[in-house]
Amino acid sequence: MTHLIAPSLLSADFTRLGEDIEMVNRSEADWFHVDVMDGVFVPNISFGMPVIKAIGKIAKKPLDVHLMIVQPERYFDTFRDLGTYCLSIHAEAVTHLHRAVHQIRELGMKAGVVLNPHTPVSVLEEIITEIDLVLLMSVNPGFGGQKFIEGTYGKIGKLKKLISSSGSSALIEVDGGVDLNNAGKLIAAGADVLVAGNTVFSSADPAGTISKLKNTVPV
Ligand SMILES: O=C(CO)[C@H](O)[C@H](O)COP(=O)(O)O
């Protein structure tokens, strides 16, 4: 499978969000990455339901929603109703991860599990065959534009081994500090989905940057 690109709307220009969404619609991007922060699980607040509803009205590509919130179970129904394709929750934010991922799947969404940089891949051993995606944070979550954590390459390798030895078909997504310099190495390490915020939206040619990310070859 060729890798997928998911521009993170956290780095979009909110004064012209509609134009940025249309740019992504027309681009070679595959998904919209939507970061939801509550100011408790992470030290920042992003946007909530009315904004996501507006995004969903004009987004022509699947919504890949990353919940950085405590007790995410409270909102699974709401995110399904907002048209979420893949709903990802942090392993660190829920006590009953198995129950939570099954609730997400029963609502008809793909279920993703997110690991913070300090959380080992081994926490997924008993659940890897029951999830659709693992999102590895390559920065500490909460803010766009942070520096990529180099240890992520090794973590992708460990996750890839766990996925192939278990027969899981989970995708590996990487989020945080992804740019044109590290994209090829991330794909070579085994990343299936690259999230990019700052790299895309701070670029002089965002659609061109998405195209470059999409056409990056493994190195
Ligand atoms: O989840 C996130 C922050 O918690 C963002 O998706 C991530 O940081 C992407 O932004 P950038 O590519 O600018 O690092």
UniProtKB/TrEMBL annotation:
Q: Does the keyword Heme apply?
A: no
Active site as annotated: D35, D175
Any single Pfam family the record assigns to this protein = Ribul_P_3_epim
Cofactor (UniProt): Co(2+); Fe(2+); Mn(2+); a divalent metal cation
Which Gene Ontology terms describe the biological processes this protein takes part in? pentose catabolic process; pentose-phosphate shunt
Co-factor note (free text): Binds 1 divalent metal cation per subunit.
> Part of which pathway?
Carbohydrate degradation
Q: Which UniProt keywords apply?
A: Carbohydrate metabolism, Cobalt, Isomerase, Manganese, Metal-binding, Zinc
Asked if the Swiss-Prot or TrEMBL record annotates the protein with the keyword Lipid biosynthesis, the reply is no
Give EC number(s), comma-separated: 5.1.3.1
Q: Which GO terms describe its cellular component?
A: cytoplasm
**Entry binding sites for a divalent metal cation:** H33, D35, H66, D175
GO MF term list: D-ribulose-phosphate 3-epimerase activity; metal ion binding
Annotated binding of substrate, by residue: S8, H66, G142, F143, G144, G145, D175, G176, G177
Q: Which reaction does it catalyse?
A: D-ribulose 5-phosphate = D-xylulose 5-phosphate
Summarize the protein's role: Catalyzes the reversible epimerization of D-ribulose 5-phosphate to D-xylulose 5-phosphate.
Question: Which family would the database say this protein is a member of?
Answer: Belongs to the ribulose-phosphate 3-epimerase family.
HAMAP family for this protein: RPE
Identify this protein by name: Ribulose-phosphate 3-epimerase
